[in-house]
Write a structure and sequence with these properties.
The structure holds two protein chains of two kinds.
Chain A: H1 4-30, H2 39-46, H3 52-65, H4 71-80, H5 86-96, H6 102-109, H7 114-148, H8 152-156, H9 166-182, H10 193-221, H11 224-232, H12 236-239, H13 250-267, H14 269-277, H15 284-300, H16 303-313, H17 324-331, H18 335-377, H19 384-409, H20 416-427, H21 430-439, H22 445-470, H23 477-480, H24 502-524, H25 529-539, H26 541-544, E1 555-556, H27 557-568, H28 570-584, E2 593-594, H29 596-610, H30 612-622, H31 630-705, H32 711-743, E3 750-754, H33 755-773, E4 776-780, E5 787-791, H34 792-809, E6 816-824, E7 827-833, H35 868-878, E8 882-887, E9 893-900
Parallel strand pairs in A: 4-6
Antiparallel strand pairs in A: 1-2, 3-5, 6-7, 7-9, 8-9
Helix pairs in contact in A: 1-10, 2-10, 2-15, 3-16, 3-18, 4-13, 4-15, 6-7, 7-9, 7-18, 7-19, 7-20, 7-22, 9-18, 9-19, 10-16, 10-17, 10-18, 11-16, 13-14, 13-20, 13-24, 14-18, 16-17, 17-18, 18-19, 19-27, 22-24, 25-31, 27-28, 27-29, 29-30, 31-32, 32-35, 33-34, 34-35
Chain B: E1 4-8, H1 12-24, E2 28-32, H2 35-44, E3 49-53, H3 61-70, E4 78-83, H4 88-96, E5 101-104, H5 109-120
Parallel strand pairs in B: 1-2, 1-3, 3-4, 4-5
Classes of the chains: A mainly alpha, B alpha/beta.
Chain lengths: 901, 121
Amino acid sequence: MLQEWVILLVSLCYLGTLFAIAYYADWRSDRGKSVISNPYIYTLSIAVYCTAWTFYGSVGRAAETGVGFMPIYLGPTLMAALWWFLLRKMIRIAKVYRITSIADFLASRYGKSPLIGGLVTVIAVVGIMPYISLQLKAVSTSYTVMLHYPDLAMIQEHKTSIWTDNAFSVAMIMAAFAILFGTRHIDATERHEGMVAAIAFESVVKLLAFSAAGIYITFIMFDGPLDLFEWVSHYPETSRLMQLEVLPGGYSNWLTLTFLSMMAIMFLPRQFQVLVVENVNEEHVRKAAWLFPLYLLAINIFVLPIAFAGMLLFPEGNVDPDIFVLALPLTEGQNILALFVYLGGLSAATGMVIVATIALSTMLCNDLVMPVLLRMLAIQQVDLSRVLLFIRRCSIVAVLLLGYLYYRFIGESYTLATMGLVSFAAAAQFSPAIMFGVFWKDASRRAAICGLLAGFLVWFYTLLLPSFARSGWLPVSFLELGPFGIELLKPYQLFGLNMFDPITHSVFWSMLVNAGLLVSISLLDRQNTMDRIQASLFVDVYRHSGDTHLWKGKAMITELKDLVARFIGPLQSERAFASYSNIHKINFSKDMQADAELVEFAERLLSGAIGAASARVMVSSVVEGEEISPEGVMKIIDETSQVLEYSHQLEEKSIELEAATKELQEANRRLKELDRLKDEFVSTVSHELRTPLTSVRAFSEILHDNADMGQEERQKYLDIMVKETERLTRLINEVLDLAKIESGRADWYMENIDLTEVLGEAVTATSQLFRERSVAIIELLPTFPVTVFADRDRIIQVVINLLSNAAKFSPPEKGEVTVRLYFKEREIRVEIADNGPGIHPDEQQKIFEKFKQITDLRDGKPKGTGLGLAISRRIIEYHNGKIWVESTPGEGSKFIFSIPD
Amino acid sequence: MPKYVLIVDDVPNIVLSLVFLMKKEGYEVHSVSNGEEAMDAVAEKIPDLILLDVMMPRKDGYEVCQELRAKPEWKDIKILMLTAKGRDVEREKGLALGADDYVTKPFATQELVEKVKALLS
């Protein structure tokens, strides 16, 4: 057995070591050589999550529920996967706006509301009370166990009065320790490098101590885990633990615990402190997100083996499973190991208590006491930095005293794990306000207040009050029959909901009203401008990043400096302003006015010390002229958003432009193609015109130069000239006609005409040509009028063109051309058939193009202009009809056009 | 011995006028109406000069020009090209393919005769 003075001395030496580490880290940090600026220290500091509850309580819970201890570590592991999205954003927000606590965070988010800051502080303090008492209980119990083991009776009744109760001494020692760590000076950033270094060290110690105990118990007392499990399966009491059925409340409880611990890892005030406030570099989150789950795995690996070993060695149940990890080495006489384990437990407990009390004291001071104090004292010209320190120190003592009282009056009726869960459920109340707050701009201040308040009250009624009842401070009937005998209000079965265990039940109702009120009121609420500004600054933190200046008025630099000095001390203030002047190349020595940026800098310095809400009040007292009206600020922010919106629009415009460019290129390509076609047309027309002109010119010159020519020859040449001139005229007319139709400038005289009569007229007009070539023409026309809506002259033009082509291509003497008019497929068709040479299938399409004449089948050139069919096609298409040719070479051709009936 | 001029064109009236002009200058004249016939005629009897139209069915003037210049024994034949396409690029193309001179339709009869005379002297 160890002497009491040995245990005490070792404990104090250990705390001294911690303090030395913290002092060294602070010293280094003052010189700008941070020891904590790396992801490993960051991860270890997050491991402050593993408290005495983990160290002693996990084994206790495992002994009761088997794997039931695991959700508490599963939750954080799941949450770590979301850190990059959620935590990084919270860190960025906290950095940009100098957030120093979770209360500050929520107050800032919801319109810098002092009410929210105060509310969150109250919830945090009340909620964390059981948790702190848990640590006190653990340390005091472990100390007693070390002292009196195996005299179990002594352990049971170690508390008699406050003065002999070692938990009280523990509380006071821890308070002193936290004061030394956390309130040496008021820091503008409210970061505590020394504290972080110390708790990182503690995380290493507790992991090593627990692992040492685990290894000793598993591998030396037993023959490894397999041997241990072999033993376990021999006894029904222990083998029961290997199954999932032992979970109280079953799967719903498992889910609740996982959810609670997911929230706890983020929103317990001390977790917020190490994760967000103490974070040096948001990049560290990346590595911590997988290192931290690894730490959790390591520290939990021996929980089940130790629980099993304890149950096997103390089957009578007279040893509390919560102290198995200490009792087992002590039973074996391993005093040194036991001492090491005790130190591990001590470090787990002190780490939590230090961080939690510092976090809570900051909140108490900044969000509860300062706003009241500032209002009461108005703004007297006194150095407030001492006052601030004093308030914080008192807060620390108060928090620990509260914890102690809870422990002394309530704590005995609960196991460690249950006490921890009560606190987890309280911390979970912050989650809706934070998570909706950083992702949803519409989450409003009123909604957050209602949600927080309602959630807290439900938690208070369903978890905290029952704990008073169970400890005899309230009548037990309160639990069993409900208040005043109203069954519906039984705290463990609110509104008759009796399917859950107390924790799940409380979490269910509190989260339901909390999140429900937050969302529903936000949807109905209209936020005022200040609230909207803060919401936008938080949700769009990656956009704004503090570039938006919210102060318009001017202040004297000296005044600002004095103001800041009053809260954070003259030296600190001087230093902060000096570094600002260095960075921004501003010379403060002259009597200069501070610009908006400097005013904002001062506000941020102050909000680090006294919280955002109070800082705003203080700064506005020295800024001359108005601060920008909330509407003005909103405008600034809107402008930022508009710029972003504008650039977004620009981007879209440029995409549109690209598309337009593509279309233009396509259009240009088509135009070029058209241009090429036109060129070709002009070139072809030019060729077609030059050919007859050549003959005319040549013969006229010949006639001119050869006056002595014979009469007959002269006549022949003159005839040629006349014919070619006619041809030229016709050609010019047709080219102009075609151009007119194609450009849409042709005049159309649409009327109801009788097609039978039109065909007859066309036949009459061409009869001379048929007679000349001795080609027969056969008319197969109806005897009644066939009325169509068309341009009479144009239709005649088409028919004459087709008839004269037929006459030209039919063999003289034997030629026979048939004209028919008939109905087919709801169309009126006109067919002109000849018995000429026919047209090759390859050419049947081409002949309707300009200047495409069939020349191959006959010698020389035909007499046409090459435009007749092209013009006919245009005319028929104008009447919504079609024109085509059916022909087999050698068997004549049929030209058909149709006009819709 | 009169010079022998071959006329190649597919428009009968133009051929008629060319034949008149050449005969009047005392040349021996033969005319055909497309490129293929022209090659046959050249193979039969090598002319001193060819009046060669460009736009013709079955083997145009450029092809005829190219084929004539490909054979060494035909390198002395003078080629005067006639075309109704008035653009410079046509002219360049004809000269590049080996034509000796180039006349655009409608041509001045005097000028054409002068050019023929110059080529044959």
